[in-house]
Amino acid sequence: MYFYNRENKIVFPVDVDKVYDCISEPVKILLGVLSVAGIHIVGIQISGSMSEDKPNTYLIAEINSELSKIQTDFFESIKLAANLKIPIMIEENILTFQGIKITKELLENSLAID
Predict the structure, then answer these.
(1) DSSP string spanning 37-69?
(2) In the chain, domain spans
(3) Helix axes 74-84, 25-36, angle to 10 degrees
């Protein structure tokens, strides 16, 4: 899985292959509680600095027609977004800091036959 910034041609790879379909029990419980309370998850926001191993990650929840953030684990959020088919919004500075800038030379080198 990866995020792509078309304008700046930056790719941000995310490795969630091993646990792609399994959401942890605590997150399942959280979703159940939110559902009973009538709160809907409408997206994921990834923001902040990359001084830590993982960026700040939030579930964007609609509560009484207002949007609120619930801080959550990065990988759980990615899996949740994939399973719920909700959008992921990621700040450009994270892509720039952690991402790989796609250049003509990089593409040519990756397609070159040894």
Answers:
(1) TT-EEEEEEEES-SSSSS-EEEEEEEETTEEEE
(2) 2-100
(3) 60
Taking the chain (114 residues) in runs of 10, the rounded mean pLDDT of each run is 76 63 76 87 83 79 91 84 84 77 79 71
Rounded Cα distance, 16 and 36, in Å: 29
Q: Tokens 């910034």 — which residue?
A: 5
Which strands make up the sheet holding 88-90, listed edge to edge?
Answer: 66-71, 56-63, 40-47, 88-90
Tell whether the torsion through CA atoms of 78, 80, 84 and 89 is positive or negative: negative
For the domain made up of 2-100, give the CATH fold: Bifunctional nuclease domain (3.10.690)
**Separation CA 106–CA 10 (nearest Å):** 12
